[in-house]
């Protein structure tokens, strides 16, 4: 399974379809269980006689493989939030409850990240791809900070503020609500910022350069 957003310390990641998953190896480790016991539990859940629908099983569990320290190819499973929830439902005790809470928070954070990424991919496609190239493990703020900086320079508002102004749901693209000139300026500054990300690592300095550039091209006669 191709990882769009790499695994965090709990094995939670996002795939190329913008779906959050958890790796059974990490789950076994954090719940202090032998991995083969977790595989056994998943096998019971994914059995055709488990009572779960084929659609649920196929949508929420995906067989994968990893190499252990000796180089052996061994099975593991990737699980969605629903698949993970079904697995750990029977895990009890204080430690289990603590890690259930942690994983819920990690899934929430990853899904928030995916929403941010999907939105910025629509509004800032070139910038999004270059941020992913620059950061081995990009964080949500790598995308939101950069995009909001450009939005504020062009419109005077962050994307969140624009959505609030027009009563838009979270994750909705703001571009249809901007003027043609604003969209054109966003695209121009996005291209400039791609070069600045490599040459000017300081956020505030990039912001000053972009503000100066906007002022210069805005002052040009039509």
UniProtKB/TrEMBL annotation:
<protein>
    <submittedName>
        <fullName>Rha family transcriptional regulator</fullName>
    </submittedName>
</protein>
<dbReference type="InterPro" id="IPR014054">
    <property type="entry name" value="Phage_regulatory_Rha"/>
</dbReference>
<dbReference type="Pfam" id="PF09669">
    <property type="entry name" value="Phage_pRha"/>
</dbReference>
């Amino acid at each position: 399974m191709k990882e769009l957003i790499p695994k965090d310390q709990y094995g939670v990641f996002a795939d190329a379809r913008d779906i959050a998953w958890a790796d059974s190896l990490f789950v076994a480790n954090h719940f202090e269980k032998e991995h083969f016991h977790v595989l056994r539990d998943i096998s019971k859940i994914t059995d055709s006689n488990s009572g779960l629908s084929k659609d649920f099983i196929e949508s929420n569990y995906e067989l994968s493989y990893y190499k252990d320290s000796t180089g052996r190819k061994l099975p593991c499973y990737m699980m969605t939030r629903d698949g993970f929830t079904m697995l750990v439902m029977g895990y009890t005790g204080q430690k289990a409850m603590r890690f259930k809470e942690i994983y819920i928070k990690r899934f929430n954070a990853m899904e928030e990240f995916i929403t941010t990424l999907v939105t910025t991919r629509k509004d800032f496609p070139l910038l999004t791809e270059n941020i992913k190239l620059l950061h081995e493990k990009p964080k949500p703020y790598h995308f939101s900070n950069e995009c909001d900086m450009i939005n504020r320079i062009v419109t005077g508002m962050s994307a969140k503020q624009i959505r609030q102004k027009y009563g838009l749901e979270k994750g909705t693209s703001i571009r249809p609500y901007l003027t043609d000139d604003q969209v054109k300026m966003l695209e121009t500054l996005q291209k400039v910022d791609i070069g600045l990300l490599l040459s000017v690592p300081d956020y505030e300095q990039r912001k000053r350069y972009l503000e100066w550039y906007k002022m210069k091209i805005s002052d040009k006669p039509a």
